[in-house]
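hey so u asked for the seq, here:
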Amino acid sequence: GVQMAASLKRQYGGAHAYHIHSISINSDNETFISLDSLRVNLWHLQRDAQRFPIVDIKPKDNMYSLTEIVTSGTFHPEQCHTLMYTTSRGRMCMHDLRSSATLKEPAKNFEIAETAYPTKHFFSEVLTSISDAKFISGGRYVLSRDYLSLRLWDVNMEKKPVEVFPVQEYLSGHLPYLYQNNALFDRFQCAASPDGNAFATGSYSNRTIIQERKASAIALTAAGPPPSASSPSKSDIPIKVTPSISKLDFNTTKFNEKVLLTAWHPKEHIVAVSGMTRLDVYQKKKILAS
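ran it, structure tokens below
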């Protein structure tokens, strides 16, 4: 068979003091951004020794005055001057690179309102933290993921999302347990189909949630371990389909098995998800695993 090998072409270092959690390539194919919890840096692909810090939320005096951190970020799929990053306070900040060399005030600010969770409690701030957000439908909408739900936003309407899809509502009554076990801080990614009418995100027990705009969400779980390199599978692995996520049970949920990373094929109904050491690729009506 054909063997592939990777070689290091460039190394972009010395620009982050904290763990880099997000990278996004610009549509101009010349620049990209790297993000950690406090900074967003802009790079040119051909200049590995020079970067431009365009967002820096680190307090100058005392770290105790820090009120939020950056959780994810991405470029607009078509407008090379537009980018967005999300925060732990439930904000999505959309910026225009043409406005200033350093981005302080966002051109648009989308925020999960306090009314999203009317009952104020100890976990309210954690629940509103946005773990991921993606431009979809050519940048017309934004899909975001917080701990309990997916939210669909119109980029021309900052006040509130146009639709909210609960994906882990069955966990809302067990927040103290999730907090004590650090599960409440898990960051789930989200993705959308090419036509923007279906969304995917991860959950626990190796479940992948598929949510269509006009239908109820379903949960997919690969029924069995993935094949090993020494004995590759010659047929599709069966999957378990839960036709309604409202039937998911907290008591049978395995919190050490979780799908955190999600990506949807740009042209086909194929979803790749990963959690821990497992990678599953779901295709409409069938699954391939590796």
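The chain has a mean pLDDT of 89. Residues 175-180 form the longest helix (6 residues).
lmk if thats what u needed
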